[in-house]
Structure formats: structure tokens, C-alpha cells
From TrEMBL:
Entries under InterPro entries matching the protein: Aminotransferase_I/II_large, C-S_lyase_PatB-like, Class-II_PLP-Dep_Aminotrans, PyrdxlP-dep_Trfase, PyrdxlP-dep_Trfase_major, PyrdxlP-dep_Trfase_small
Organism in which the protein naturally occurs: Eubacterium ramulus
Keyword S-adenosyl-L-methionine attached: no
Listed name of the protein: cysteine-S-conjugate beta-lyase
Cofactor dependence: pyridoxal 5'-phosphate
Length: 389
């Protein structure tokens, strides 16, 4: 490999949310933080160099998105997903969650029903409730260790609850599903039939493992006009705090409505360093990402093998995408609170407790595997010491 993902980067004392929250929560200093979704890997070297070049200018006045930015964006989505993105479709926001909240306000009014699919990334719930909308849950169904959409329940609730907006996570966080084209089309057809606008969060689209393929919603020509597609370089290249996301809206009327909501909060200029990092990542990051995905696959293989040999009661949901694993600890018979305490206090590992993604996640843990292999090995050995028989 050209890139060294085994390198340990000490993030302590850098106001790093992932690591410095350990001290703030008064947890043991050697706690391993495999929770919040950022990575313990340095970003693409060319991104670092480009940021240094811009920093050295010494002037950080108003900027604008240049042609090079859109060219890099269009090339990335064309080459990786076969999606031909038009410049006019792109609206920049400081984050995907910001965009989800803006979409809820733009396309619904207070009291309207918005559908999500739990267990799901917890801000999906928050952006609905905090904006005074009615939450309608179409829970995912697990059969034989794999999650599926319940289309019958989806259509029934859309009709009964008069749902106006559907928030779809694709690939799905936390259950790691990479929805097939057929699955996406079936959900899209129901929404189109009932006049429900779809907001599709594709922030994890670049992390898909061997044997699976991410179908970008924008490539579904029959349904893309009914969708707002949310993307960002932040998860892919570890750029979250540079706060830039690209929201693609092919339908001009939906785009106009979304832009009107952006105008209400007077957000107009993307962060300069966010612009620079996004463009450089999409221009130079392909090999880095491809090698990273191979490395993450190695982490998955190690965890899968370790659990099978030492902790057979922990059932790993087969990961199809994202760098977040969904592990089923229910066979231990512990409450969600007791399970979390045992892992956090006894094993000194910080996972995301499953019920934060909805009550359907109780007894599960979300595990961030985007760390050097040595950390993953240490975490598994600690689990084995605490849960081994």
C-alpha cells in the first residue's frame, strides 16, 4: 500500500471530540473511543498540502466556488457512481444534518408528518421533532441477520398519516445496509405515488465493500426529480470539522424551495477551507480511498473472526457499507443500560449504544472501525476479557 493506515496519530489535547471527551466524561484515560463517526487516519496528503498553501496566503476574505470545484465534484460522481451531476443542481451547506433540517422546514409545515426508518442515525429523529413535525416510523425489519424495508407498512402509514416527507439513509447508518437498486425503486415508487418528497442522505456512499454496489439515487431517472440528495466529503476523507456538504437537487422547483429556506438563514458562502479540501479530495483522493476500503475490510475480517472464535454470542450484522458495524449483544440478556456500562466501564471501550438510534436498537452496539488495526485488536481483546466464557 502507498498509504500507512497503521500509523497512530495522537489526538489527545487537540480539542478532539472523539478523544478529549474521554477526560470530560471522567472516563479512564485508556478508554478506546470507537464511537462518533470520524476516523483516526490522516486525510489525503494533497488535501493537507492544499490547505497549507491557502493558509500561507494570510488573507481569508470572501471566496466563491470556482469551476475547478464543480469539475472535481462532477468527475467524482461520474467516475464512482455513473451519475452525471449538473452544476446548477448543487447547493452547498455546512453539513448534511443542517440540510436535513432545512429540508424539513422547506417542504413541510408544523404538524406535518415526516417518515424515517429506525434504527437510524439519531439526528433523523431530532430534525423532525425539533422542527415541530410529526414523526412517523417505518421500522426496518431484520430477517436472518439482515435488515429490509417493510414496504407494506411504509405505504399504509404514508396513507394513514398523510406523510409529506421521507428521510432515507443510503447507505444506512447504523445497520450498514447498501440498498439495492430494486429496493430503492420500490420505496421511490411508493413515495412518488403518494406525492411524498424524498430526502436521501448519501454521506456514506464512498464506503461500500466487495460484493456490494451503491446506487446513487440521482441515477434513478424516473425518481430523481422527486428527491434531494445529500452528499459530503466529510466522512470519506475525514473532513467533518471543515463543514461543507454538497446537496444535489435535480428538480428546479424543489431546488428553488430549498434555496429559499437557505436564504432565510442567510447562509450564502461556503467555508474557504472546506471548499479547498473538498476539491483536492475529489481530485486526488481516489487511490487513498481505495486503499482505505481494503484496510477497513481487513478490520472487518479481524473482528468477524475474533467474535466467531471468542465471543459467539455477539452477532455481527454483515457490513455492506460505512465504517460503522452493527453488533447484536442481545444474547447476553442485559438491559441496554447494563450492556453499555459493562462495555464502557469494564472493557474501557466507548461504543455507541444502540437505543440512541431508536428503541429498535436496544441490545445492539455501533462500532466505529475507522482506526488503526492495533486499536481494533486491543478493543476486541478487551471485549474478550469481559464477555469471554
Amino acid at each position: 500500500m502507498k498509504y500507512d493506515f497503521d500509523k497512530i496519530v495522537d489526538r489527545h489535547g487537540t480539542d478532539c471530540y472523539k478523544w478529549d471527551m474521554i477526560a470530560k466524561r471522567k472516563l479512564p484515560a485508556d478508554t478506546l473511543p470507537l464511537w462518533v463517526a470520524d476516523m483516526d487516519f490522516e486525510t489525503v496528503p494533497e488535501v493537507k498540502e492544499r490547505l497549507k498553501e491557502v493558509a500561507d496566503r494570510g488573507i481569508y476574505g470572501y471566496s466563491m466556488l470556482g469551476d475547478g470545484y464543480y469539475h472535481a465534484l462532477k468527475n467524482w460522481f461520474s467516475e464512482r457512481f455513473g451519475w452525471q451531476v449538473e452544476k446548477d443542481w448543487v447547493i452547498v451547506t455546512p453539513g448534511v444534518v443542517f440540510a436535513l433540517a432545512a429540508a424539513v422546514r422547506a417542504y413541510t409545515k408544523e404538524g406535518d408528518s415526516v417518515m424515517i426508518q429506525r434504527p437510524v442515525y439519531h439526528p433523523f429523529t431530532n430534525v423532525v421533532k425539533e422542527n415541530g413535525r410529526k414523526l412517523v416510523n417505518n421500522p426496518l425489519v431484520m430477517e436472518n441477520g439482515k435488515y429490509h424495508m417493510d414496504y407494506e407498512d411504509m405505504e399504509r402509514k404514508i396513507t394513514e398519516e398523510q406523510v409529506k416527507l421521507f428521510l432515507l439513509c443510503s447507505p444506512h447508518n447504523p445497520v450498514s445496509r447498501v440498498w439495492t437498486k430494486e429496493e430503492l425503486c420500490q420505496a421511490a415508487e411508493i413515495c412518488k405515488k403518494h406525492g411524498v418528497i424524498m430526502i436521501v442522505d448519501e454521506i456514506h456512499c464512498d464506503f461500500v465493500y466487495e460484493g456490494y454496489y451503491h446506487t446513487s439515487f440521482g441515477t434513478l431517472s424516473e425518481y430523481a426529480d422527486n428527491a434531494v440528495i445529500c452528499t459530503a466529503p466529510s466522512k470519506t476523507f475525514n473532513l467533518a470539522e471543515l463543514q461543507l456538504s454538497n446537496i444535489m437537487i435535480p428538480n428546479p422547483e424543489l431546488r428553488k424551495t430549498f434555496q429559499a429556506e437557505m436564504d432565510k438563514v442567510f447562509y450564502s458562502d461556503a467555508n474557504l477551507f472546506g471548499q479547498v479540501s473538498c476539491q483536492a479530495a475529489y481530485e486526488y483522493g481516489a487511490q487513498w480511498l481505495d486503499e482505505l476500503r481494503v484496510y477497513l475490510q481487513g478490520n472487518i475480517t479481524y473482528i468477524r473472526d475474533y467474535l466467531a472464535e471468542h465471543l459467539p454470542k455477539v452477532h455481527l450484522i454483515e457490513p455492506e457499507g460505512t465504517y460503522l458495524l452493527w453488533a447484536d449483544f442481545r444474547e447476553y440478556g442485559l438491559s441496554a443500560e447494563a450492556l453499555n456500562a459493562k462495555i464502557l466501564k469494564d472493557a474501557r471501550i466507548w461504543f455507541n449504544e444502540g437505543s440512541m438510534f431508536g428503541p429498535e436498537g436496544a441490545g445492539f452496539m455501533r462500532i466505529n472501525i475507522a482506526s488503526p488495526r492495533s486499536m481494533i485488536v486491543e478493543a476486541m481483546e478487551r471485549l474478550g476479557e469481559v464477555f469471554g466464557e
